[in-house]
Amino acid sequence: MPYLLRCALLLALLLSACTGEPDGTHENDADPGVATATTGSVDNLLLVCIDTVRADAFYSLGESSADALSPWQERALDFRRASSASSWTVPAFGSVLTGLWPSEHAAGRFDRVVAEMSVRPPPLPAADDVEFLPQAAGKQGMHTASFSASTWTNYRVISLGLLRGFDEVARYQVAAQDLLAPTMIDDLMRSFAKHRAEGGGLYLLHLMEAHDWHTRSEESLDAYLAGLDEQELAVLTAFDPSGTCRDRDSLICKRFLVYLSAIRAQREAVATLLDRLQAVNGLDDTAVVLFSDHGEEFSEHAGAARTPARREGFARSYPYEYGHGGTMYEEILHVPLLVWHPAHDGAVVDEPVSLVDIAPSVARWLDLDFAPQAWAGRHLEEALAPADDGEERVLYASGIAYGEQQVAVRRGARKAVWFAASSDSDFFDLATDPAERQPLASPDWALHFDGLLVDYLDSILAPQAPPGTFSDQQIKSLQAIGYLQNADTNGTTAPREAPGQEQGQPDKPPAEASAGP
Q: What's the whole-model pTM score?
C-alpha cells in the first residue's frame, strides 16, 4: 500500500471512531464463555494498585535490599512481562476493570487529534453500555468497595466511569510525604471482616505515594531526603538506569530518589496487607492482584523528537523532566503484576500479559457472570502453560494525556508507536535497544504493524457522552499533580465540590452534580 494512502487510512480510522467490533483475526480476543466456575474459585478478591510504579524500579528495589515484600513475592505468580494498556490512569484503569482496550471502553479518551499540548476538553467517560467488574460483582450479591487516594477512583462525579458498581467509596488525599497506606489498609480490613461472611467482596486499594511524593517543592524534597539514613540512600541510588543521579544535587535526582523511596514504602505496605490477611486466614478464600496502572519517566528521553516540549504555566515541568501521560516508552508501559491465589504456588511467569487480563481472571476466580462480547483480555492462568505456536502475543496501549495521540503495538521484542496527528511511526527492537534510543526504519516492520494497527483502530468506539465536567477546585487539584494542565477553570457548568467529604469518608456526590457517571 502506498505510504500516503496508508497514512490517510489510519488517520481516517482514528478520526471516524467507528463502532465496529474487531474482526475475527483480532489476536487477543478471548472466548467470552470461559468465565465459569473453576477449581480456583475464591470468595473475595483484592485489587491493589500501586500507582505510577515502573517495573524496573519495583523489582530492582526488592532485589538490591530484601524487604518485607520479598518473601511474599516468592509466593506470588509474578508476571515479569506485564504491560499497561495506557500511559495514564483513567484509560489504564478502564482496561483493568473491563478487560477491554482503551479504544473499546473509551474512558479517558480525548475526542480530538492534535500534535501539541493545546487546550483540549476534559476526557470522555466510559461508554454507557460497558460493564465494569464491580457492577457484575454487585449483581451477584458481593460487597464492592474502593479505598483510594486517587481523584480518579475516589470521587464519583469525576470518576469517568471508574467507580461504576462500587457500593462503598472511601476518599483519601496524599499530603507532603505522608504515608497514607496504613490508614487505608486499616479501613479496608474492617470492611473485609464485616462482609467476608456475607457473600464475599471485591475490593480496590489504590495507593498514590509513588505518584505524589516526588512532585513536591524542592524544599520538601530536601527535608524528606535529609531524614533518610545513608544505608537507605545507598539502596535508592543503586538503581539509576539513565544516569538521572549523576548530579546528586540536581532537582531531577532528588525527585527520582523520593520516587524510589515511595515505591519502597508501598512495597512494605503491601506486605503489611498480606500479613494481616494471613493472620485472619483471609488468604484461604481470597485472591490478591497487585499491579501498577503505568510507570514514570525521569529524563530517559529528554529532548527526543517525539517527547512533548515543556509549556509555560504548567504546574509541573512534565514531560521532559519527569512524569507520565505523554509517551509510550517502556518506562511508562512496563509495570509490575503479581497475584497471590490459594490455588497457585509462587512462580515467575515470563509470558507477555497485559492489564486487560485482570478482568477476565477476576471474573473466573469470583465465578462472575461477566463476559464482554469481545474481550481483549485473556485469563492470566493461560500464561502458566502457553501454547507453543511460535508467535508471541500482540499487546496494545493507547491514551495520551499530553501531546500527540499515540498507539503502541508490541509483539515479542518488536514494538511500534504510531502518532495520530502526523501518521508517522517509530519502530524499536527491544532485544538490541531496550532503552528505545534508536528508532528503526524498516518497510517490513511497517507492513507488519500496519495490519495490527488497523485491527486496533477499527475497534474504537464513537463518543457516547460529552466530556466530564469539573469544578474549579477539582481542576486545580488535578493540575497540581500534572493533569488537565490547560483546562479552563471557570466552573460555569461543573458540579460543585461535595460538602462534608473528609479523608477516609464515603463519597456522597451532591444531588445537583450535572455530569460524571
A: 0.83
